[in-house]
Amino acid sequence: MPTYSDSQRSLIVFLTCCVAAIGGFLFGFDSGVINGTVDGLQSSFNSDSVGTGFNVASMLLGCAVGAFFAGRLADKYGRRTLLLVAAVFFIVSAWGSGVAGGSMEFVIYRILGGLAVGAASVMAPAYISEIAPAHLRGRLATIQQIAIISGLFFSFLNNYLLANTAGSSTSELWFGFTAWRWMFWMELIPATIFLVALLFIPESPRYLVAARRDERAERVLHMIYNESDAKERLAQIRDSLSEQRKPRFSDLINPKTGKVISLVWIGIGLAVFQQLVGINVVFYYGAVLWQAVGFSEGDALLINVISGAVSIAACLGAIALIDRIGRKPLLWGGSVGMAITLAILVYAFSTAEMVDGSLNLSPGNGVLALIAANAYVFFFNSSWGPVMWVMLGEMFPNQVRGSGLAIAGLFQWGSNFAITMTFPIMLASIGLTGAYSFYAICAVISIFFVIKFVRETKGRELEDMAYA
Fold first, then answer.
1. Would you say 254 and 248 are in contact if contact means Cβ atoms under 8 Å apart?
2. Residue 353's closest CA among 364, 366, 362?
3. Among 40, 312, 313, 317, which is most exposed with the fewest C-beta within 10 angstroms?
4. Cα end-to-end distance, the chain, whole Å
5. How far apart are CA 105 and CA 101, in angstroms?
């Protein structure tokens, strides 16, 4: 068995986590690319507000299914195997979304991409949590969120540059195809890199032990720990799994009370509140939002690029703090910040006036809205954005990790679908003021949820996570 120096082991762990996090990059890119294609979808498929909402949100149906089944399938076939399947689906979806000739065809390809996003959203942080040493796990797991935000940023930049080159998202760009189609096709590059890179990383040692492949698990652990620590970690994993049956959904029921264990409800709460604060309305409909208050398509797409850059800076801040101050303080602090900035957005949008049939903000309130929106994005991506995924990847005991992630992932993407699908309807019925008032109220409620129910997981080994 080869020996590694401390620096080599650190590099191996870091690079392995980075490869897994490419799934997060594609998660972000696939989620954000739709932002710049809404006008193209409306003009190409002649869709109304409900049809447009479904075209945008259809991917999230696949996400819910992918997240729900990924955990169980990964328990059976392995974490890396599921990520490889997701990479293939990303490639098929990126190509098909760009060639689609109608709404139904487009929705099918977007749902395929959603299956990949859903699987990657739960498997990448779970894999990283199972590879990373406890003292580095928070920072390494946060790489996933940086990857997601980087994917969003580059999708926004991609949309802006392609639309600017063509003149608009609906104008012809290269080889007779409109710019919005090329926005999807650009995803083929990182998706292919992801597929190839996955072939060079190891399987999760915890999965290998559960699959009775102890020799391979020990080789992987020697890549992460020194010899004595590797043997100790292998023994701990064996002990944690030795008295456990094959994971199944019934493990989520407390046999003494007959009720779902409270840890699952906490995971569901974390997953749902991350969406109820409305962040993906900014990610999916940012261009529509800013055009609704008077900005041009080009300016709206540029604002998205700025928001993406702010998001990356916020995630870097989270990396610096998550293993120092813990997960819980970041969550409630982020909730407070989002509640305040959303309230400011509500005020700014409430002052918008109708000019020639469209909303328009005064110059002062336009600046206020831009500052508040980017502050809101900053608070989210320095707290709920990365921390929710970190906690879902580490809060469940080994026996219920796959099932717990499946349930939480289903609720996360289900609520994501609901928020995304309803935004165009809310925009048409109660306006931006009403929609953002709802998101602000949810941010306030999330403060009390974190304080009362969420427990700190900083510095604890996965084998030490207890039922509740």
1. no
2. 362
3. 313
4. 40
5. 7
